[in-house]
From TrEMBL:
Protein name: FBX15 protein
Gene assigned in the entry: Fbxo15
InterPro entries with a match to the protein in the record: F-box-like_dom_sf (IPR036047), F-box_dom (IPR001810)
Pfam name, any one: F-box-like
Entry-linked SMART domains: FBOX
Tree of life domain: Eukaryota
Length: 436
């Protein structure tokens, strides 16, 4: 029953976030909260107008005159939209300025962590049960590495795996900034779908790795689900995200459709007969949640045409025969986890980050995924190393990684004696516009 004029006076004292919230109450509040006069005042306070009216006696007269010209020519809600669009553009400009410098070793932006903080980016998972009910998990622990970020969710209220059908991973970014310019935590947020995982047959479709308390199951891309051994209940969810295109995937998609990466535009080369087969650079990290076991860069990788077989190009990074390139991994590999009550460490398991650059230094194939070491069935032919041999493998639609390691009990370390990448010929042909 309150008059509209009185409501408008009250609304005029609200900030942008509060005004948007008020507009969600009912239809009447929505129309009143769309008033161009209120939003022009907010817009003018945040963004200086492009033109200035000189022949004015006071600042108040200038504001009124400019407002009158801008109010009657615009539909209701115009200045609200202009304010929101300009806020989004300002955040994107600030983020793009941060991601412009590139690390010469990884080919990735140097200030990913700062860019994510400037945008207010966070991640959530939505667990959907078989009845259609959604369980949203927002609170997460973050661990930043050179080329990836590890995100862990845990709670005593996580639902049982038996009733779940899917898990969706979203990037969430605030649309507005507060008065200090920082992203507003209480305002409207944009959800961008990054990945969707089907959990109905999780225990049958993936290999389990266990410690004393939990079993963990892995799904591509980069998902680990930990289940309590005694019950079929989720202990924690861990996701590993590579920095390559992470900001785009986390902000430019919609709540239902994933962001599609633009195709690479190849540089035409009709002179080099082995175009696309050489000058690859690899940066590889192997780490747990809180510790790093390997951080190395390998340059000048190539593949001969005779090494192309079964739809894959073979890039040999570390060879069994070349002892000078064997790489040590100090310490015992393990993937640590923690919940509100318990914590543990899954032995012989870690996260592998691979960043393969093409001959121009552009990221060609990138991933961050958990891997597990298993005893190898290969007979030992290493006369310089005495110890058991282990193998680690990873595969997705674009390529495969195969690693052989030897455990040295005397020095308590692993030695990588063989590291080979297999790149899909379809990936190479699409990237370079070639035909292998």
């Amino acid at each position: 029953s309150m008059p509209s004029e009185m409501l408008m006076k009250i609304f005029s004292y609200l900030d942008a976030v509060s005004l948007l919230s008020v507009g969600c109450v009912n239809k009447r509040f929505y129309h009143l909260a769309n008033d161009n006069g209120i939003w022009l005042k907010i817009y003018s306070t945040c963004f200086q107008p492009k033109r200035t009216i000189w022949a004015m006696k006071s600042e108040q007269t200038e504001t009124v005159s400019l407002g009158c010209a801008a109010l009657y020519d615009r539909k209701p809600g115009y200045w609200k939209k202009e304010y929101i669009f300009k806020q989004i553009a300002a955040v994107k400009t600030r983020v793009m300025r941060l991601v412009k410098p590139v690390d010469p070793y990884t080919g990735l932006p140097c200030k990913n962590k700062e860019a994510m903080k400037a945008s207010g980016l966070s991640w959530i998972i939505v667990l959907k049960d078989k009845n259609g009910k959604e369980h949203v998990m927002e609170k997460a622990n973050l661990s930043f590495k050179d080329t990836s970020v590890t995100i862990i969710w845990y709670s005593t209220d996580l639902p049982c795996l038996d009733i779940l059908s899917t898990l969706k991973l979203y990037g969430v970014m605030p649309l507005l900034s507060d008065q200090s310019g920082a992203p507003s935590k209480n305002g409207p947020r944009l959800r961008s779908l990054i990945a969707e995982y089907h959990l109905a047959n999780l225990t049958e479709s993936s290999v389990a790795v266990a410690d004393k308390l939990v079993q963990i199951f892995s799904l591509n891309p980069g998902l680990l689900v930990g289940l309590w051994k005694e019950k079929n209940e989720i202990a924690f969810v861990m996701v590993n995200l590579h920095y390559h295109q992470l900001l785009e995937r986390s902000t430019l998609g919609s709540a239902t459709v994933q962001y599609a990466l633009p195709p690479n535009k190849p540089v035409l080369d009709d002179v080099d007969p082995e175009y696309g087969l050489h000058d690859y650079n690899l940066h590889v990290d192997m780490h747990g949640v809180s510790c790093t076991y390997l951080c190395g860069t390998f340059r000048g990788l190539f593949c001969r045409k005779g090494d192309i077989a079964n739809g894959y190009l073979r890039l040999t990074v570390v060879s069994l025969k070349d002892h000078t390139k064997h790489v040590p991994l100090p310490g015992t590999l393990g993937l640590s986890w923690e919940t509100d009550v318990f914590k543990g460490n899954v032995k012989d398991c870690c996260v592998m980050d691979v960043t393969l650059l093409d001959e121009t230094g552009k990221p060609f194939w990138c991933f961050s995924a958990p891997v597990h070491m298993e005893p190898s069935s290969k007979a030992s032919c290493l006369y310089d190393y005495m110890g058991p041999i282990y193998t680690t493998d990873y595969a997705d639609a674009e390529g495969k990684v195969s690693v052989d390691l030897v455990w040295l009990e005397e020095t308590k370390e692993y030695i990588i004696v063989n590291l080979v990448l297999y790149i899909s010929t379809k990936k190479v042909n699409d990237w370079y516009g070639t035909n292998y």
